[in-house]
Amino acid sequence: MENYKKVRVEDKPMEMPFAALPPDIIEMKVKDGSKIRNLMGFAIGKMESESVRQMLFSGTGKALSKTITCVEIMKRRVKDLHQITKILYRQTEEIWEPIVPEVGLDPLTVKRNSPSICVLLSKDPLDTTEPGYQAPGDYDSMWIQELKVESKGPKRRKPGLGRGASIGRKQPRPPGGRGETPKKA
Within 10 Å of residue 79's Cβ, how many Cβ atoms? Predict the structure, then answer.
């Protein structure tokens, strides 16, 4: 690629995974460099107001995990949110042209597919038959139940060979064995 230079990058438009969204929906486009604190400060403030009923989080590529983190924080802060998650790919085309056109090199087009996620959060019930639907849950009782199971009793150690010894470890060799230099008297 040292004989080429990147001329332009074209992002192909993604088809909207949700059919009919209200025009007043708040869309949070999470980018790779977005700060979660800034995103969540704005999003939680809007979602806690009575006028906003739905919010759409979307992210592509390296912002995928950050988008999921924002959604999970939102679900913890604002209770009883219904969720529909859609996973898709965004296609990007890079156009490369030769640096020296007289050499006879052709222009190149590189197509890339980046994973994307769109998560719709709603205070109102959504279609439960839609793939990717998650009903609102009682998170506190779930965590309390897990803690009860984990803390049923102290973990007991298996009887072993002693401090730091493991079953597969070789036993020390007797003095004068192979690998040791004999002591001079």
Answer: 12
Distances (CA, A) of 85 to 76, 82, 102: 17, 10, 50
The predicted structure's pLDDT at residue 38: 94
Helices 36-48 and 64-77 pack at an angle, to 10 degrees, of 40
Tokens standing for residue 111: 């197509």
- Output the pLDDT for position 137: 79
List, for residues 66-107, the tens digit of each pLDDT value: 999 999 999 999 989 999 999 999 999 999 998 887 778 888
Please check whether residue 3 is in contact with residue 105, taking contact to mean a CB–CB distance below 8 angstroms: yes
For residue 140, CA distances in Å to 79, 133, 175 come to: 11, 21, 61
* pLDDT the model gives residue 20: 76
Residues contacting residue 135 through CB under 8 Å, at least 6 positions apart:
82, 128
H/E element, 47: helix 36-48
Report yes or no: 69 and 57 within 8 Å, Cβ to Cβ.
no
The span from the CA of 21 to the CA of 55, in Å, is 10
Q: Which regions of the chain are under pLDDT 70?
A: 138-145, 153-185
Burial class, 151, CB count within 10 angstroms (exposed 0-12 / middle 13-18 / buried 19+)? exposed
Pairing assessment for the beta strands 54-60 and 26-30 based on DSSP bridges:
parallel
